[in-house]
Amino acid sequence: GNSVTQMEGPVTLSEEAFLTINCTYTATGYPSLFWYVQYPGEGLQLLLKATKADDKGSNKGFEATYRKETTSFHLEKGSVQVSDSAVYFCALSDPRLSGGTSYGKLTFGQGTILTVHP
Amino acid sequence: DTAVSQTPKYLVTQMGNDKSIKCEQNLGHDTMYWYKQDSKKFLKIMFSYNNKELIINETVPNRFSPKSPDKAHLNLHINSLELGDSAVYFCASSQREGYEQYFGPGTRLTVT
């Protein structure tokens, strides 16, 4: 079956530090890949996505590149801010299970808690 | 305007009780979902409805029963609550199956 593995947290950084959160996946097909963010006390928000190999998703200074050869989708940001403190989830969706579209049943990683200090 | 709303935000109840969580979306979406997030933040889909029809039913105890009176609402009823049901429950919706999902703020259920 499909699965997503994220790096263990929590991650604690100082403001303006470089961020990497590792994500690897297992899927039998060609999934779409996502990063979701959950701010304290809120629901999940889609941060960025990539639907095919070598695609780069980007939003709010965050980036992730779909690497089929290493089955990875690592999240990066060059300079984090205190406001980036949140839980980050890597997820995949198998388009074979959703009529060929990019989204569908989401399989999530375990989440990584990020805390950024001033 | 809130796109996906859930009530209540917090729910504290005793073992053995029956409770419901309500979800409403005003996005005109056809598909709605329920997810469970455990104490370690792990998220897992429970159910998915498309135009009031059940399309995903993961291995969830039959004490959990979703009900969709119309495509804007998907409620979750839980019978005979157990300690292990304590979690945050998220509702989500998408334009239709296979499209981007929008999440509600969550309902924190605590069973004592």
Order of helices and strands of chain A: EEEEEEEEEEEE
Radius of gyration of chain B: 13 Å
> How many alpha or pi helices of chain A?
0
Order of helices and strands of chain B: EEEEEEEEEEE
> How many beta-strand runs of chain B?
11
Weakly predicted, low-confidence segments of chain B: none
Shape of chain A: globular
Mean pLDDT, all residues of chain B = 90
How would you characterize the overall build of this protein?
The complex is a heterodimer of chains A (118) and B (112). Chain A is built from no helices and 12 strands. Chain A is mainly β and 118 residues long. In chain A, the strands form 3 sheets. In chain A, strands 2, 5, 6, 10, 11 and 12 form a 6-stranded mixed sheet that branches. In chain A, strands 3-9-8-7 form a 4-stranded antiparallel sheet, with no helix packed on it. Chain A is globular, with a radius of gyration of 14 Å. The mean pLDDT of chain A is 89. Chain B is mostly beta strands. Chain B is built from no helices and 11 strands. In chain B, the strands form 2 sheets. In chain B, strands 2, 4, 5, 6, 9, 10 and 11 form a 7-stranded mixed sheet that branches. The radius of gyration of chain B is 13 Å and the shape is globular. The model of chain B has no long low-confidence stretch (mean pLDDT 90). Classes of the chains: A mainly beta (118), B mainly beta (112). The interface between A and B is medium-sized, with 24 and 21 residues.
Short précis:
Chain A has 118 residues and is mainly β. Chain A has no helices and 12 strands.
Please tag this protein with its features.
heterodimer, A: 118 residues, mainly beta, six-stranded mixed β-sheet, four-stranded antiparallel β-sheet, 12 strands, 48% strand, B: 112 residues, seven-stranded mixed β-sheet, 11 strands, 0% helix, 57% strand, globular
